[in-house]
Amino acid sequence: MFVSFQKNLAVQKIIFFSIIIFLTSACNTSQEKKVEASKTDQATTNSQDKKLVEQIFYNVPSPLEMAQMTRDAGMQFNSELTNPTEKKQYYIDQTTQALNLGVYGADLSYARIFDQVQEAVNFLAVIRELTESLQIPQDKETFALDKIEKHINNRDTLLHIITEIYSDMDIYLKENNRGIVAAMIITGGWIEGNYLALQSMNKEKPNEKVLRRVAEQKLSLASLIELIKPHVRTNHKSGQVLADLEELYVIYEDVTIETKNSGIETDSGKGKTTIKGNTRVEIDQETLQSIQSFINDLRKDITNP
Amino acid sequence: MLILYKNSVKMKNAIIIILTALLSFTLIGEAQGQCRKYTKKSCVPKLDPYIFNGQVNSALLNEGDIAELMLTFYADQEYRVLVCAEDQLGDVNFKLKDINDKVLFDNSKHEMASLWDFTSNTTQQIIVELEIPESDEAGEKLKNGCVAILVGFKETE
Predict the structure, then answer these.
(1) pLDDT tens, B118-150?
(2) Which residues of A touch B98 (CB under 8 A)?
(3) Which of A5, A15, A158, A203 would you call most buried, defined as having the most Cβ atoms within 10 angstroms of its Cβ?
(4) What pLDDT is attached to residue B1?
(5) Do residue A29 and residue B129 have CB atoms under 8 angstroms apart?
(6) Taking CB atoms and an 8 Å limit, are A59 and B17 in contact across chains?
(7) What are phi and psi of B99, to 5 degrees?
(8) Residue B152 has what DSSP assignment?
């Protein structure tokens, strides 16, 4: 009788732990699911307080947009600012490789925006090596350097290639539960995009447009932190990256951004719709210097492990 | 004898539960993979001529589900926001809201358009909120399918 009771108990334990294991696994595949809107940061809508949001996605602007802004603000291309491709050999662990894949992606965008063809080809080569090291399958067509070189003068082709490489990687990594690698690539790209903009800026007399864009990164930094949070692990390099970004956000708290939208204006002749509004952006010299110095250090840690 | 038989039945049940759990888990993973493939093949091309920002936001959702995307939109940059859903989900309602909860765009007022092209004259965070429509008829099978929220921008000359 006692033996039978013990066996029953054992069977019940197997069933119980199997269900627990299954539920835990299922939760891991949908980390962002069933998030109460009220628990997200200040930017989440108030009306969603009681509604359950099945999925919340956070995106950050593409490094291409940042590079475009530096060009439009009249800055010049400076090859010394980009991360030398020879450094690739020092990137051994996965987190460092992923962060630098993002860094080189931003450098590639920077080179493409300023029509630096050879630089762009060099970055593509190192990006291909890093994706191999990270065991991310490559589309041979996309990465065929001879084909790229042949069409390199077609600005749209290169743009298409950049977009294709990074979106394919994002799809593959998310599909294979390697969200941490995808998150680190985006983080590396964000840091490098900001580093390039800050370094291109005249320190004594900062360009008004660039200065404003640097201040506005407070918004994208908040999204970046939320984007990587579900993926990072404590006692792991990614945990340190998150801690660094949170520390940077503390500096950004001294930046004021207030937006008030007045309405939508449609120009039916041009077929354009514009959200009209005003934003007050304030950043003092001390805060700018702190941001600059923090991003320099962060970028140094990533590119010189 | 009877006890041994009962234990053997319980063991069989346990194995069935484990196998069902493993199978369900595999199927969920497979469906999510299919969803991302659908996004790449059927949704990303609809961003053209805008440049895709490279971040794939797709999920398997059921009717009545809500999903949100939060992104910083830069001043004076031209954007396309695309909400792309599998046919069985019907017309998906989506809205763009600012951080003060002001609705900037509601596709239900624009013939349930699946995309919106716009420029903002200020840099700001905008929330794209979508809701999967619920079936009108009672007893109808619960609809579910793949939905993607994608953002593209235009290159300035």
Answers:
(1) 999 999 999 999 999 887 766 667 789 999 999
(2) 259, 261
(3) A158
(4) 60
(5) no
(6) no
(7) -70, -10
(8) E
H or E stretch covering A44: none
Cβ pair A114, A75 in contact under 8 A: no
Tell me the residue type at B115. L
| Predicted complex ipTM | 0.78
Tokens of B27: 């199927």
Three-class SS of residue B78? strand
Q: Do B66 and A175 touch (CB under 8 A)?
A: no
- The answer to whether the bond into B49 is cis (omega within 30° of 0) is yes
Q: Cβ of A57: how many Cβ atoms within 10 Å?
A: 21
Token pair in block for residue A248: 């940077």
Chain A positions in Cβ-Cβ contact with residue B94 (cut-off 8 Å): none
Q: Do B68 and A18 touch (CB under 8 A)?
A: no
Is the separation of the CB atoms in B114 and B84 below 8 Å? yes
The token duo for A291 is 């941001």
Nearest residue on chain A to B10, alpha-carbon basis = A11
Q: Which chain A residues have a beta carbon less than 8 Å from that of B47? A: none
A15, A26, A274 member nearest B28 (Cβ): A26
**Phi, psi for residue B136 in degrees, rounded to 5:** -80, -35
Do the chains contact at B54 and A47, CB–CB below 8 Å?
A: no
pTM over the 0.90 mark: no
Task: Name the residue type at position B24.
Answer: S
Is-contact A302 A100, C-beta < 8 A?
A: yes
Mean pLDDT of A186-194: 96
